[in-house]
C-alpha cells in the first residue's frame, strides 16, 4: 500500500453528495468500502502515483495500482481517464495552436544562392572514446555550399539557434526557406520562434521521408565515403580538425557533376559575378574619397567575437573578452566553421 504522506484517504477523495439510489453515474467511481467518489479523485490519485520517483506506469499497471489503493475500477476506464488527461505512457504533448509547416514540393528548387537552405544532423564515430559525436550542417541548395557546421557530443536547440545566428550574421536570409526533418532540436519552440523573427520560412519533411531532404542526405553520403571510411579519430578535437579541412576542400575544390563540374564556391561566385555585370556602375560620392572609413557602434557589435565554452559536456554561451581568445584555439573555433 502506498503511503499518502500523512493524508487521510477519506479526506483526499471527493465524496459523492447526491445520495441518489439506482444506477451509478459514469462520472463517479466506487471504493472497496462502498463509497462513491468523483472521477476527478481518480485523476488526482493517478497524478499522485505518477509523481512518485521512478514511476512510469501505463494504464494496465496503473489499474492494478489503483485497485490496491481501494478503487473498484477496470482497465478500460483507467485508459479513458488517462487518455483524456494526456497521462498515458509515451503520450505526446503538442500545441494545437502552432502547427508545423510541412513541405509542399518533393524536391527543393533554387534559382540563386541563399534562396533554399537545408540542415540535418549526422553521427560521426570517435574511435578513441568508442562513442558517436554529432555533426550539424547547414547547406545552400543552389551551390551545395556548406554555410556552417558544428561538431559536438550533443546537439541541442541552443546550438542550432547559435549556428543559424552565425550564418544569418553573414548572409541576408529574409524570405528564404529552410528545410529540415522533425528532430527535437528543429521542432523546438526556441528555434522556430527565432527563425520566424528572422523571417526565415522553416518547413519540415514528412515523417520517415528522408528523400524530401535529398540534398543534405546526398551530402551525408559523401561524408561517409570521403571521411568515415578513411579516418579513425582518437578524439573529438581530431575529428574537428579533419572536418574543418574537409569543409574548405568541399567548398573550394570538390567538383560536382550537378553543378557542371564546378566546386560549390565557383557556382556561388559565378552567380554573383553575373549579377554584378547586370548592375549599373555607381559613381563614388565625394565624401567617400576624402573621408576615412570609421567603424560605428553597430559595426563593432556585429564583428564582436563569441565563443562556446564547454564545461562538463554542457555548452555555455559567453562573450570573449580581451586578447585571451587570440592566444588560444577555443572549442567552438575548432569544432565549427562558417
Task: Give a structural overview.
- By secondary structure, the chain is α+β, with helices and mostly antiparallel strands.
- Among the domains are: 12-84, no CATH class; 116-278, Ribonuclease H-like superfamily/Ribonuclease H (Nucleotidyltransferase, domain 5, 2-Layer Sandwich), CATH 3.30.420.
- 37% of the residues lie in helices and 17% in strands.
- The chain is built from 13 helices and 11 strands.
- The chain has helices at residues 9-12, 39-50, 59-68, 75-84, 157-170, 184-187, 189-197, 214-228, 236-252, 264-278, 286-290, 297-302, 331-335; strands spanning 28-31, 36-38, 71-72, 116-126, 131-140, 146-152, 177-180, 201-204, 306-311, 314-319, 336-337.
- The strands form 3 sheets. It has a 6-stranded mixed sheet with strand order 8-7-4-5-6-11, sandwiched between helices. The protein has a 3-stranded antiparallel sheet with strand order 2-1-3. Strands 9-10 form a two-stranded antiparallel sheet.
- Strand 9 and strand 10 (314-319) form a beta hairpin.
- Helix 3 (59-68) packs across helix 4 (75-84).
- The radius of gyration is 29 Å and the shape is elongated.
- The relative contact order is 0.09.
